[in-house]
Amino acid sequence: MIEEKLVEEVVARTFENSSVYPAEDGLELMQRAYERETHDSAKKSLGTILRNIEIAGEKHHTLCQTYATPAIFVELGTDVKIRGDFKEALRNGCRLATENGFLRPSIVEPLTRKQIGGNVGSHVPDIDVEIIGNADFLKITTYCTTALPPSFVEILLPSQIGKDAINISRMITEKVIEGGGMLCPPINLGIGVGGSLSTAAKLSKYASLRGWCTRNPDPQIAQWEVDLLGYINRLGIGPFGLGGDTTALAVNIEIAHVHSADLPVSVEYYCWACSLRRASAKIDAKGKVTYLSAKKEMRG
Amino acid sequence: MTEFYINSPTTEEDVRHPRIGDIVYLSGIVYITRDLSHKRIVNLMNERKSVPIDLKGATIFHAGPLVKKEGDKWHIINVGPTTSPRMNPFTPQVIEAGVRIIAGKGSMDDQTLKAMETYGAIFLGPASGCANVHVQHIKELVGVHWLDLGTTEAIWVVRVDRWGPLTVAMDAHGNNLFQKVINSAKERVREIFG
Question: What ipTM describes this predicted complex?
Fold first, then answer.
């Protein structure tokens, strides 16, 4: 039996971890980019990011002042029992992390833009639950989702795809120029292709969850990820839009089968800090908690 | 790439030297201001009323700090640049009033670039998202004005020491590094995709 209160505490602690400590796969890519970068000023910029990450860890402060939109991905084993209001416990965990100073209160009403005074509102935090059959654990991943311009969803006609999806690659690459320094490069891209509009959008959000060092298992899509990353890094936009080799660190593409008449494409552009915000915890059926992908200093 | 050490408040001569791509380390007084305080400054100037900060030779940092109050004393926990183009409508006027250095995120518009060239001012890009690094260079919180706008929108007056590296992104000679990078990226797109 897992108690509601435990879920709340674990969500709050996991948000704290994803706010303060970088996801290790993303950090590894940042370090590699720093070593490879050939422009002096761009190398200095990447060095400043790495130093910022270090200081955040030492002082136990959030990596960057903002966290975009907080999101929770739940993997729920069907053999697990939870006592209490599970959904409210997830939301309360987000509320607690905000009160503890790890998520800046950034959420507002959509039209009046009035602050709601925290990060818990209608459909915020963004919560998804995946049911896992024959499993007796609950896994919680906290991360962030963005609407950082020029992130987009576009419905294409089949005739617009082009050979090896070259027209889609061009569209995604040109938008990186549009975003420029405002995207806080080096960026990472989560891309959903296919399904319905909402499936594509959801896949672009899920794309960040597999980790930035893991390529799509379909060799053709994996190649597309590598090619697209190559195109973007040939732009020379560089860290903070001030020039350099390192514009993007990774491209993750998820695909879904699709109706023969159209092709939805959804792209989330993640700033460097949002790319690193992902942490997980697993709770077994007896309530034992393990904080996953934990660094030594990660609180647990 | 040349490195410059500049003291703020500064002079026209100091900001005429650096060119885009150069690096600046800044020491002295910096005003942390953003949307609402800019609007109020410009409104007061239009009404020929005084503003509580001295804009002559001043440095403005587009940011909203994360702060906390202990007893009567405010502390800045961390602070990073916010999106500068939001301040486009106000910036030529504050430059005309004497501001020499602006630090922020993302390119500002052509009117701002023109004002920088005419009056002598530069735009510096502190590392985006690196709020914990920037706060380490703040040696003293000198004061705060207009807390009625909220802690994020108030004017925070700080003393910084060798704050940097700050990349010169727009210089006092009509050059814009962001635009240069974008123009070159557009050429690359044509090379890649035809």
Answer: 0.90
